[in-house]
Amino acid sequence: MSIGVEVSENELSIPIDYVPGVRGHAVLAVGPDSGGGDALAVWRLGPTGVAGGAWVVRLDEIEREPEQLRRIMWNLQDRCLIDWDRETPVGVLARVAEVVPAELLSKLEGTILALPDLLEEIREHRSSYSIAVEQHRTRVKSKIAPLAWATQLPSQEHLATWAAKDRFASASQVAATALAVTAAVARTAQLWQDTEQARYRRAYLRPLGDPQPLPPLWLARLRKAVHTNLSVSA
Q1: Cα separation values, 87 from 39, 92, 112, Å
Q2: Which of 82, 101, 168, 213 has its CA 20 to 30 Å from the CA of residue 28?
Q3: 173-210 tens-digit pLDDT
Q4: Rg (alpha carbons) of the chain, rounded to whole number
Q5: Predicted confidence band of residue 14 (pLDDT cuts 50, 70, 90)
Q6: Where are the alpha helices (DSSP H) in 12-167?
Q7: pTM of the prediction?
Q8: 57-105, pLDDT tens digit by residue?
Q9: Closest CA to 29 of 177, 179, 165
């Protein structure tokens, strides 16, 4: 199943990169740009990881023209920051704390999602679906095959290795870092959609609910990010 912007749904009615009431994610990274200077990369992603905007700004330019970064960062106020851990985006935000308004920094720090947590949520749902299949098996006489996942869940290390392969390389290290996280987000969302497809093919599992674009807790965090918008100020 491919993921693309503006594709409304797949064969099982799972929205692809549009979810009502949800804006998506953002990735922040600090590192060398194509010229070797320290830079900030800001990637804006849809709900399932499709990139919808990207900026690379040198840190020395931010010091000279802070308003440029403020405008970029205000675009992220209704999104969840996402990375391999919480500490990385917190550290990036600390690098720009003197430029970005305190209320915006506080809100962004409260939205952070960690990819390992999202993988674990998918793993828990796969386990619960498999248990539901076994419970159904005890109530019917016909032979019931176990759930077969089209794709197995990778470990954090395997996902990170896959996301950092050469095909996601960039002209600069900082952009490559942001692109690798972006690829991992899209892959994780795809793993969930594969999970929902396998479940929904079983009629007796459909009462568990219509196919969802993202796991419940992940989706709830994205919705929470848009619940309260801040007042844009210079």
Answers
A1: 18, 9, 9
A2: 213
A3: 999 999 999 999 999 999 999 999 999 999 999 999 99
A4: 20
A5: very low
A6: 59-64, 66-74, 87-95, 102-109, 115-137, 156-163
A7: 0.89
A8: 999 999 999 999 999 999 999 999 999 999 999 999 999 999 999 999 9
A9: 177
Select the more confidently predicted residue: 11 or 49.
49
Helices 156-163 and 115-137, axial angle in degrees (round to 10): 120
Amino acid at position 132, single letter: A
Smallest CA-to-CA distance from 14 within 202, 208, 189 is with 189
Give burial (CB, 10 Å; 0-12/13-18/19+) of 4. Answer: exposed
Residue 39 has pLDDT above 60, yes or no: yes
State which amino acid sits at residue 172. Answer: S
Evaluate whether 170 touches 54 at the Cβ level (below 8 Å): no
**Is 168 a residue whose pLDDT tops 80?**
no
Q: Residue 216 to residues 96, 105, 169, 182: CA-CA distances in angstroms?
A: 32, 26, 32, 20
What CA–CA distance (Å, rounded) separates 218 from 126? Answer: 15
Residue type, 81: L
Residue 26 structure tokens:
């953002």
